[in-house]
Amino acid sequence: MTTTAPPPAATPAPVPGRAPAATGRRRSPAARLAARAGGGAVRVFLVLVGLFWLMPTVGLLLSSLRSPADIAASGWWEVFTAPAQLTTENYANVLRNDTITGSLLSTLLITVPATVLVVVIGSLAGYAFAWMEFPGRDWWFLAVVGLLVVPVQVALVPVSRLFGEIGIFETTLGVVLFHTAFGLPFAIFLLRNFFAEIPRELLEAARLDGAGEIRLFVRVVMPLGGPAIASLGIFQFLWVWNDMLIALIFADSDAPPITVALQQQVRQFGNNIDVLAPGAFVSMVIPLVVFFAFQRQFVSGVMAGAVK
Amino acid sequence: MAAETTGGAAGGAPRAEGSNGPAGAATSGPRQDTPGSGRVPAPRTGRTPGSGPGRTREAVPGRRSVTGTRRAVAAGFLLPALVLLGALVVYPIAYSVYRSFFDQSGDSFAGLDNYVEIFTDDTILTAVKNNLIWVVVAPTVATALGLIFAVLTERVRWGTAFKLIVFMPMAISMLAAGIIFRLVYEQNPDRGVANAVWVGVHDTFAESAGYPRAHPLPVHPLKAAGGGAYITKEPVRAGAPALLPLVGVAPADLPGDARPAKRPEAGGDGRITGTAWLDFTRGGGGKPNVVDPRERGLEGLKVEAVKDGRVVATATAGPDGSFTLPASADGALLRLPESNFHERYNGVDWLGPSLVTPAIIGSYVWMWAGFAMVLIAAGLAALPRELLEAARVDGASEWQVFRRVTVPLLAPVLAVVLVTLMINVLKIFDLVFIIAPGSVEDDANVLALQLYRSSFGTDAHLGVGSAISVLLLLLVIPVMVFNIRRIRKESRR
User: Fold this and answer.
1) Is the CB of residue A139 less than 8 Å away from at least one CB of chain B?
2) Which domains are delineated in chain B?
3) Mean pLDDT in residue range B274-303
4) Which residues of B touch A298 (CB under 8 A)?
5) Which residues in chain A are contacts of B191 at CB distance < 8 A?
6) How many CB pairs under 8 A join A and B?
7) In Å, what is the CA distance from A293 to each residue of A231, A297, B367?
8) What is the per-residue pLDDT across A237-278, written as a single tens digit (0 to 9) for each?
9) Which residues of chain B neighbour A248 with C-beta distances below 8 Å?
């Protein structure tokens, strides 16, 4: 690979084959000036991009803090010149709204079990794939890896039929099972690889202490897998919390999760921003808290889940 | 016991720093979470598959069961996962494939009819085309932005804060993002920020005063000049103020900062001054052709001085309606060009049929550029610094370093990001479902949306819905094969 490019006339000719760090400092004053000006431009650019990226969210936040009349009359940026417009009235209304509060509870009732189940079932299988011997182990694991990229869409019709037959269509249990199943390939993939790196000596030592398979799993493997389990858990939690499509189809229409409840509001978009904006913000609070509190785990979960 | 071993293992686990193979982030769990290592791990394709040095503990023979597990126990550990995967993932694939060959009722075999319909039915064909646009444009733009941001944030101290802001949309639901962008794209420039900005920029370059129904009265010194413009009946003279009165503007339509019109005075230095104002006093009492106290200026009105059909000078009325023309306009006729009387520019119809897909792609890029940025930044952190530094020492400019060194070295990471985003975009549903208003849903259609509509919505046809889902599956099979081969290669070593 070519790493050198023709040098600009202003800089001294390169020494072929030698690149000591010392010469790196010795740049012409003009080049340094250009670099500094460039650095300034980069900063300005990044600040502008950052503001640009924040603007849509800020717009929603400020809209959620204005009265319906103000929202109808003018844009959220008016708040900067008329801060007196800010009111928490919309939030009070939304939190008094049984549909919204009920849907938050539904979301929680779906998200928590779907996360716990994926972690538990995924850990069991991940451990089995990592440290147990059984015929065709590697083939089974490859099959699971193959399932990583299966789109959920392929299962919507068949599973809704299946759930209909066993009577769990449009129930919380159905949504939870669906999310668990589609979270499993990634969970197994991530945890198997993580567990496989546990030093063999640790497991052998525990075994010598007389630990059985289950004890070994609960007392050694699970605690050691903590970091990976945390990444997985956070990733899955956000995934399920933020899901709309699966809930739209499988969730109980009398107790829809927040995404579905808000989606129904979107159909009336225009004259209900005083409900939609605070509702959307309420739905974002938990994910954002989780995101800011567990950034590192989230990032590694996202990176590991790149194939999903 | 467990508590004691935990700490030991976390610190003692093999730190495959820099030598992690293709499975990077996922397989190198203990490394990325080693206490104190604040850096994000390199993404799994930090290298091309198979190029990295062997993994510490990957080879199958080295990882025999420590416990001599009985098969029944292994089966017990695996059973819940396999049952769920079998019933809710594998069986549905088979069923969808099967169902896709049957007609709407599901009773009679339809061969490939459903697949043919995907590519012949107009609505579905729009979905196919849109999906193609999505898959090409969205990942490319998101990855390009991610690359730019990742490279630039390396140079500033508060790069982390920037990354946090750009990455944050990843944490929220597509539904929330959809609501956010419905708001951004609102048509009314007084409410939607996209149009507010757009109109602002537009008016800076091609301002329309926006007085659609303004016109002079017969007693006014103006007459129609054809094509919607008005022109003075008499030439203007330096030393005599020019009067340009108009009526027909609702006071509420005046710009918010319109001020009481300035009483016209003759300008000095041979210049020509005048006032353009709304010659109408609310509640009556005003006299025509006289600037009465409560009458306001027509801000932004354009005035052209015309001599022998040529424009010799132009001016724009200020908030008090006053304007000044240079001495060269002496003896010219003053014309109010037709552009003064257009409707005010109202911005772009972002969510109209032609722009709705690019607009929604914009919201997707807003959500996912951060993802690309974080993965690329991790890849960047894993690059050998010496190479970059060597290129700089050899006199390469920053751009050359970026173009000839950084990007080629990052190629594997960029490929992963692109492929990941493509898979993701292939199944795009929520954003389109939420942002596209019902009236343009057909224009914004994508495969996953059509699948939803065919399977559960108004277009009910399970055969077509299943065929679309099989099509989506077929499109990801190359990635599936790639993943499987990569893992096999790893475990053979």
Assistant:
1) no
2) 112-187+351-459 (1.10.3720.10), 222-341 (no CATH)
3) 81
4) 171
5) 71-72, 74-75
6) 418
7) 12, 9, 19
8) 999 999 999 999 998 888 899 999 898 888 777 678 888 889
9) 452
ipTM of the complex: 0.84
Q: Do A153 and B57 touch (CB under 8 A)?
A: no
When CB atoms are compared, the residue of B6, B95, B437 closest to A223 is B6
Other residues' Cβ atoms within 10 Å of the Cβ of residue B275: 24
Residues in chain A, pLDDT under 50: 1-25, 307-308
DSSP string, B457-487: STT--HHHHHHHHHHHHHHHHHHHHHHHHHH
Domain assignments of chain A as residue spans, ordered by start: 34-87, 94-307
Please give the C-alpha separations between residue B229 and each of B58, B105, B333, B335, in angstroms, as whole numbers. Answer: 81, 65, 13, 7
**How many Å apart are CA A152 and CA B1, to the nearest integer?**
41
CA separation for the pair B181, B359 (Å, rounded): 9
CA pair distance A129, A137, nearest whole angstrom: 7
Q: Which CATH superfamily is domain A94-307 in?
A: MetI-like (1.10.3720.10)
C-alpha distance from B320 to closest chain A C-alpha (Å): 24
Tell how strand B302-307 and strand B310-316 pair up. Answer: antiparallel
In three-state secondary structure terms, A19 is coil
Record the pTM: 0.76
Residue A244 touches chain B, beta carbons under 8 Å: yes
Q: Which of A56, A157, A160 sits opposite B99 (nearest CB)?
A: A157
Compute the distance between CA of residue A206 and CA of residue B482 in angstroms, rounded to an integer: 37
In whole angstroms, give the CA distance from residue A176 to residue A183. 10
**A46 part of contact set with chain B, CB < 8 Å:** yes
Evaluate whether A244 touches B174 at the Cβ level (below 8 Å).
yes
- Strands (E) across A139-197 are located at none
Q: Which residues in chain B touch residue A156, judged by CB atoms under 8 angstroms apart?
A: 451-452, 455-456, 465, 469
Rounded to whole angstroms, the Cα distance separating B172 from A60 reads: 13
Q: B417-443: per-residue pLDDT in tens?
A: 998 899 899 999 999 999 988 888 889
Amino acid at B372: A
Would you say A228 and A194 are in contact if contact means Cβ atoms under 8 Å apart? yes
